[in-house]
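Replying to the earlier thread about multi-chain prediction with a worked example.

Input:
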Amino acid sequence: MLKKQIPLAITFITGVIIVVTFFIPHPPFGRLQQDALTWYSVIFGFTMLLGVDSLVKFHYTKLRRREKGWWFSIVFYCGFLLSFITGVISEVRFGDAFNINSSFMYFYNTILIPLQSTMFALLAFFIASASYRAFRARNIDATFLLVTAVIVMLGRVPVGYMLWHKLPDLTSWILNVLQLGPMRGIMIGISLGTVAMSLRLILGIERTYLS
Amino acid sequence: MNGENISFWEKLGKIDRRWIFLIIGLVVFIPIAFGLRMTVHVSPAVKSAYDTINSLPEGSVVMISIDYDAASMPELQPMLKAILRHCFDKNLKVVLINFWPLGLPIGNQGLEEVAKEYGKVYGVDYMNLGYRPGDIAVMLRMGTEIRSVFYGDIKGTPLDSLPMMKNIHNYDDIAVVVGLEAGSMGDAWVQYVNARFKQDLILGVTAVMAAGVYPYLQAGQIKGLIGGLKGAAEYEKLVNHPDFGHIGMASQSWAHVTIILFIILGNIGYFMERRRKRGL
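Result:
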């Protein structure tokens, strides 16, 4: 009984306080909000530690059981230890891990940045391949989408202006008029959904997070 | 003869994707390798962002939020540098803040590089607050007092010991916030900081996100929008300092044209195949 009632009570009280203090930032609510936000920041910080703990445990289990792709876990541990050790050494040696001459920044610049950039850059190849295979004018809707996409793709780069100097204006019109209505509708829908879900959580109607 | 034609069109619609990868790779690489540049035309959204910063009086404070990491660096780092050049050229004070921990070193490198170009002094002309966990909570708390979240700067130096921070306490002391976004923090800046504190905002976003930010621009919730590498190139043009944005624009232009050609080829192959199947 208490296992459910106490979390529900905490959710209700916290939710009401956050909502009231957001709209009435004057004393004593303003102070309450600052305290609540401090707590939120502290909890947020600990969730990062929880994430590290979970990741380390996950890869440890994978290694111990020799699951498929277990050697990727070794790569993870190497990367994790390298970041941690160079971070500590750089902090001690330079007083700042982000010092440009530190070993931490050396590995950050020479390993992490190229890896992250490469992962994202691969998208260009897959988008090209996927658009070639999937972007087909199969029906009237797909044709509209195709024509619009081609206009926007050309209008968003200088070569579009070279082809026809009004193309960037046409692209702006598509973005500012044609897509804006549906986009605004989607945003309003998401916001209303968020409000509804928040109310369900505060009032204890939505309880799936307890299980 | 007819059989050869059918075979050709079918082949056209089914080019091995490795050829597509190779062609896209070359189209992106060649303009960068040879430093090819294209003439960039400034859009009203970027001009509006530029004008907002340009209209600030000397000594005003611009806060730049680094909400991206290395994955979006090619699009957003040229924006950061162009905006920093504009700010330092106009003798504006710059405060950097980070909501993406992995973006911390990238933002700092960009800041230090441009500050050095203009001979600016840390703590007097610019500073870096660093990263604090909490996202929206951090944004809201800064509305009351920045020191309630950031006790020191990125190096732990107390904020009050930095000359430029003496009179900077909350959003009332910041002329404009520039959010460089690769995720959802841009929405948070608009929905919490603009809506509640009436803070002037400019957003710089990746190209894929730009369409989703237009409603904020049209509603006047943001003063300007810098979208993707093209936006960065436009800003570079406005500050009269062409850099990577311009070089990247040539690559992006030809990559777009190549993708469109592939789409056309794919559709020709598709229609020819459909026609053959219908027995026409």
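DSSP finds ten helices and six strands in chain B.

Feel free to reuse this layout for your own posts.
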